[in-house]
Amino acid sequence: MKDSHSGDCQWLHKQIEKYPLIKYPFDLERLPDDGIYFFYEEGEVWGHGGSKPRIVRVGAHRSGNFKSRLNDHFVFKENKMRFNEMQSAPKDRSIFRKNIGRALLNKEKSEYLKVWEMDFTDRESRGTKRHHRNIELEKRIERRISDLLRRNFDFRYIAVQNEMGGKGLESRLIETIAQCECCHPSKRWLGLHSPIDKICKGKMWLVQHLGCGGITHNDKLRLQKIIDKQSKEFQR
């Protein structure tokens, strides 16, 4: 008999598949102001039979910043890549990018991983630690991350209104997938090279909300109502 997380994980995957799959490049302006996204990664398959893709990351963004967060992940604007030692790199605005970079550098046993871990979002850090940075190397790493995201990752999303409690729901969605006993990473999953235990020993590009109890019966009822309504709109 399947555990409850596995049954809910299968249900969730099937429900999200009612939405169109979005690949880069896409129109940011067609995305909602608030929503929950579900990322898939090439080569990663769910464990519920067949070869359906498995969800490798869940994120919820509200207060009108859903578009900007997707922009931070994919880096649509080329000027974001023209940073210098007194400016933060794209990885400091996207933990998703930072985690992918961590795995790439750790896989290659790069000493630059120590610098990559530093956060340069505030002026004081940039001023006191800038001597550690190799900007040209950082730009090459950032381009590799962009290429990986744009080539190997795609996503679906639910437009979620405030009454759904996006952040609380996000944590329960993550737990449902993270604790599923059927879904596992492939042997070639890049996340296995992460220096972060919760990623390399898990199955998702996440370190938070991995033990929050999973989605509830009420969550499923409310999600089902929203998904049925929105999926019909996509089909028009």
Explained architecture:
By secondary structure, the protein is an alpha+beta fold. The chain folds into 2 domains: 4-74 and 153-234, no CATH class; 81-150, no CATH class. It is built from 9 helices and 3 strands. The protein has helices spanning 4-16, 66-74, 95-107, 113-116, 123-129, 135-152, 166-178, 197-200, 217-234, and strands spanning 35-45, 53-61, 153-159. A 3-stranded antiparallel β-sheet has the order 2-1-3. The radius of gyration is 18 Å and the shape is globular. The model has no long low-confidence stretch (mean pLDDT 92).
Describe the structure using short key phrases.
2 domains; 9 helices; three-stranded antiparallel β-sheet; 236 residues
